[in-house]
């Protein structure tokens, strides 16, 4: 079974259907066996060998709780000691059945990837709006919960915890609004009495300013393009020229000729390389709308780009991917992270930009793998745009805790059965009687 991490929740239809399959032997392939908590490893093993790690409750009592407590902020030395013992026993249980190979081990010819975090200062309007919104009592209590809990605990507590009475779904809405303000103030309808006309510019967002800078420095867009960039007649081109059928106008493709910049070492991208291409990932479709309307259309109308999100039909999806991969003039692909993080081969791109990051670091890692994969011939540059002094920095800390948790549960030590010493091998057999 490929993408085995999809079995992490036994209550889903996928997991239930998988358990109905009858087989003499079972094999799971996954690059991310543990994304949020140790329980996900139990779910996978319960498909492979039912009850091998006990029932769900038994696993929680023996392993899950101790491991989770040790990764929470403020964990005591006792918590860490108990988690160490629990992890040792868990490793002994699962080690013979895990063959772990990381990409660097099996794809030695794969070019280097470099991840760079770009801190983005809020504009004065963004900061005022963010602080005003954050000062509300129910928003303060929600952000306090995020500080105290791991993300997984926070998600499971949403239905039980109600910081401001009868808030319900407003908890999630509060978090989303804070994230959207970090991208652009126009994404949140907060000041209804304000004339928003003056806000319809990318310059109101520190993050879009940084994105503009990256695209220009990397040579994705060049200021010296011939023609008048403010001429809206260049905005849409004849889609039939690319032999596309029923290509919806919401998927924008723009015409251009490109000149190449000199190499710019300050941003770490060699712009003299031919046909540099860029993937821009965002969590929300409305964020992609803002990138399109305020940056690409308004300031880079001669840039050819395409877009892929949940509203893209299957036919359009295939056309867009082929166009991006094969047409050197199409330099940029906008993607919704949920839609574009799996099942796509985009080796023609050598620059990946995250406008917004996912709570789950492995979703972002899978998105990076769209470009950093077999067939890639150039180093891949990854830029993460992080708004300073905001909820986005909290999201990164949660990502770090999840990565640490995953590495502690499934370590590089889980390389092969042969790596185990005789004493440890006998210990496993004695343990399982």
What is the tally of beta strands?
Answer: 6
Taking strands numbered 1, 2, ... along the chain, how are they ordered across the largest sheet? 1-6-5-2-4-3
- The CATH topology of the largest domain, please? Rossmann fold
Number of helices: 16
Q: What global shape is seen?
A: globular
- Please state the structural category: alpha/beta
Radius of gyration: 24 Å
| Residue fraction in strands | 5-15%
What is the CATH C-level name of the largest domain?
Answer: Alpha Beta
Mean pLDDT: 76
Low-confidence stretches: 154-168, 225-273, 414-420
End-to-end CA span: 29 Å
Examine the secondary-structure arrangement and name the CATH architecture of the largest domain.
Answer: 3-Layer(aba) Sandwich
- Portion of residues within helices: 40-55%
Listing every helix as H and every strand as E from the N terminus to the C terminus, the arrangement reads HHHHHEHHHHHEHEHEHEHEHH
Per CATH, the superfamily of the largest domain is P-loop containing nucleotide triphosphate hydrolases
Summarize the biggest pleated sheet: 6 strands, parallel
Number of domains: 3
In terms of topology, how is this protein built?
Elements: H1 13-18, H2 39-48, H3 56-70, H4 77-94, H5 103-106, E1 113-120, H6 124-134, H7 137-148, H8 151-157, H9 170-183, H10 206-217, E2 278-282, H11 285-299, E3 305-308, H12 314-326, E4 332-336, H13 337-340, E5 351-354, H14 361-368, E6 380-387, H15 391-409, H16 422-431
Parallel strand pairs: 1-6, 2-4, 2-5, 3-4, 5-6
Helix pairs in contact: 3-4
């Amino acid at each position: 079974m490929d993408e085995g991490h999809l079995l992490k929740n036994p209550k889903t239809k996928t997991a239930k259907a998988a358990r109905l399959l009858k087989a003499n032997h079972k094999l799971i392939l996954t690059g991310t066996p543990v994304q949020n908590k140790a329980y996900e490893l139990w779910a996978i093993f319960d498909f492979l060998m039912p009850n091998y790690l006990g029932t769900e409750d038994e696993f929680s009592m023996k392993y899950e709780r101790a491991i989770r407590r040790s990764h929470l902020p403020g964990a005591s030395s006792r918590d860490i000691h108990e988690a160490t013992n629990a992890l040792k026993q868990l490793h002994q249980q699962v080690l013979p059945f895990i063959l772990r190979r990381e990409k660097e081990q099996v794809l030695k010819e794969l070019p280097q990837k470099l991840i760079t975090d770009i801190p983005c200062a809020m504009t004065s309007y963004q900061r005022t709006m963010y602080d005003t919104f954050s000062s509300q009592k129910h928003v303060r209590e929600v952000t306090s919960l995020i500080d105290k809990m791991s993300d997984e605990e926070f998600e499971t507590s949403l239905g039980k915890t109600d910081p401001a009475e009868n808030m319900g779904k407003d908890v999630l809405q509060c978090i989303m609004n804070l994230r959207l303000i970090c991208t652009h103030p126009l994404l949140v309808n907060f000041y209804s009495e304000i004339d928003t006309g003056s806000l319809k510019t990318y310059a109101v967002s520190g993050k879009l300013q940084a994105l503009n800078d990256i695209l220009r420095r990397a040579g994705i867009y060049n200021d010296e393009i011939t023609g008048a960039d403010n001429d809206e007649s260049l905005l849409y081109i004849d889609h039939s020229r690319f032999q596309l059928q029923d290509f919806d106008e919401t998927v924008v493709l723009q015409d251009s000729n490109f000149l190449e910049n000199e190499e710019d070492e300050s941003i770490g991208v060699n712009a003299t390389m031919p046909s540099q291409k860029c993937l821009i990932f965002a969590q929300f479709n409305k964020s992609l709308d803002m990138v399109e309307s305020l940056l690409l259309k308004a300031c880079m109308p001669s840039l050819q780009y395409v877009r892929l999100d949940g509203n893209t039909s299957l036919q359009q999806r295939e056309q867009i991917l082929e166009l991006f991969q094969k047409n050197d003039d199409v330099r940029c692909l906008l993607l919704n992270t949920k839609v574009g993080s799996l099942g796509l081969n985009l080796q023609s791109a050598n620059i990946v930009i995250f406008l917004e990051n996912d709570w789950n670091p492995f979703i972002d890692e899978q998105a990076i793998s769209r470009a950093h994969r077999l067939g890639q011939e150039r180093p891949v540059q990854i830029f993460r745009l992080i708004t300073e002094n905001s909820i986005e920095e909290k999201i990164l800390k949660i990502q770090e805790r999840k990565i640490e948790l995953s590495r502690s549960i499934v370590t590089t030590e889980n390389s092969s059965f042969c790596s185990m010493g005789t004493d440890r091998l006998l210990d496993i057999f004695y343990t399982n009687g």
